[in-house]
Amino acid sequence: MSLASGRPILSIPGPSPLPDRVLRAAHRASPDIYGDELAELNLSVMAQLKRLAGTRAHLAPYIGNGHVGWEASAANLFDAGERVLALTSGHFGRSWAAQLAEMGIAVELLDFGLAPPDPARLAERLAADKAQDIRAVLVCQIDTASSASADIAAIRAAMGDHPALLVVDAIASLGSAPMKMDEWGVDVLISASQKGLMCLPGTCFLWFSDRAAARGRTSLTTPVWDWHLRANAEALWRFWGGTPPVQQIHALDEALRMILDEEGLEAVWARHHALAETVWAAVDAWGRGNPAIRLAVADPARRAASVTAIHLPGAEELRAWTAAKAGVTLGIGLGAEDPPNALRVAHMGHCNAAMVMGVLGAMEAGMCALKVPHGTGGLEAAAAVIAARA
Ligand SMILES: *Cc1c(COP(=O)(O)O)cnc(C)c1O
């Protein structure tokens, strides 16, 4: 028999669960897109998005997903043939680098395997760049596949006075983990609507500093990608390079109100961190009975707040079991050393203690049903974290 009927729990790292309020905000007919009301709402959403990123920098919105954000930023920053250095900690950093290489950009990888970037190695590499022709350092704040979290302030510090721009993919981290774009000296920030922002997939955003803006246009900049046209827009259609995504603007307005004005950004970050610790506690307890069960990132300070990658024997069967029997969809072991024996638990965006306890409970039930050896006390350990943090 199956016990999966009821409200499904989606614990994959994007798209993340949508609040009913966000869905309701989007559920409306399109208005006159030349009217003042939508134009004003759009301006307010742009201002909220800058608050979310901790910046007074420029902001260009696009219709598209994270991959569009990667391409749009590169098309504004680089000429074909220019050199960039990508710090990679897993599947997403490497895919980003590969996409830019396809665009003709000379991407060099500083690869950390599935571990977070080491700022000392970056400093060493930049010191060797005597000609200073590396134009940018690229890094994912959270690589969603490995769940490694980069220390952005330390990476900026390691860049010293090398003139390269710092370009950060915050697609899996914005709205989940701290981001202080201006304070940390980030030149370009890339994010999208469907993860920590608790919105529908379909929009992405580029925040960029004066230093990045000073690049002007490059040989790769075409009218659709040109961020100056969007960031300096007056008419609503200019922001979006055509018809605005009306329903998504309403959804973003609602989600950003929930994050910034109701719960508060610091509280949102603290909630994500506490929920992450809840998952780590359960996995550590399971691992005490079976060393093959373990967290992918050893250092707690460098684990992601929004997603946890786990090595677990029989993970593929466990994912199938929790989906069929308990209504819980877990993330695949994307980019892991041994994908069938790895999975990811997302705790991203609209996610609370009960959802995480439900996910962990379903996993433990599945391990019992499938006879995956594991230590006892996982749920108690998780509950203790919630008791201590709440
Ligand atoms: C999800 C994700 C992407 C890709 O975003 P899409 O919307 O799937 O194109 C890129 N980078 C990171 C870190 C992500 O988590």
Automatic annotation (TrEMBL):
SUPFAM superfamilies: PLP-dependent transferases (SSF53383). Residues 76-316 form the Aminotransferase class V domain. The modification N6-(pyridoxal phosphate)lysine is found at residue 195. Substrate binds at residue 344. One of its GO terms (biological process) is glycine biosynthetic process, by transamination of glyoxylate. Gene3D superfamilies: Aspartate Aminotransferase, domain 1 (3.90.1150.10), Type I PLP-dependent aspartate aminotransferase-like (Major domain) (3.40.640.10). It comes from the Bacteria. Keywords: Aminotransferase, Pyridoxal phosphate, Transferase. The keyword Transferase applies. InterPro entries: Aminotrans_V_dom, PyrdxlP-dep_Trfase, PyrdxlP-dep_Trfase_major, PyrdxlP-dep_Trfase_small, SP_NH2Trfase/AEP_transaminase. GO terms for molecular function: alanine-glyoxylate transaminase activity; L-serine-pyruvate transaminase activity. Its cofactor is pyridoxal 5'-phosphate. PANTHER family: ALANINE--GLYOXYLATE AMINOTRANSFERASE, AMINOTRANSFERASE CLASS V. Belongs to the class-V pyridoxal-phosphate-dependent aminotransferase family. This is Alanine--glyoxylate aminotransferase family protein. It comes from Paracoccus siganidrum.
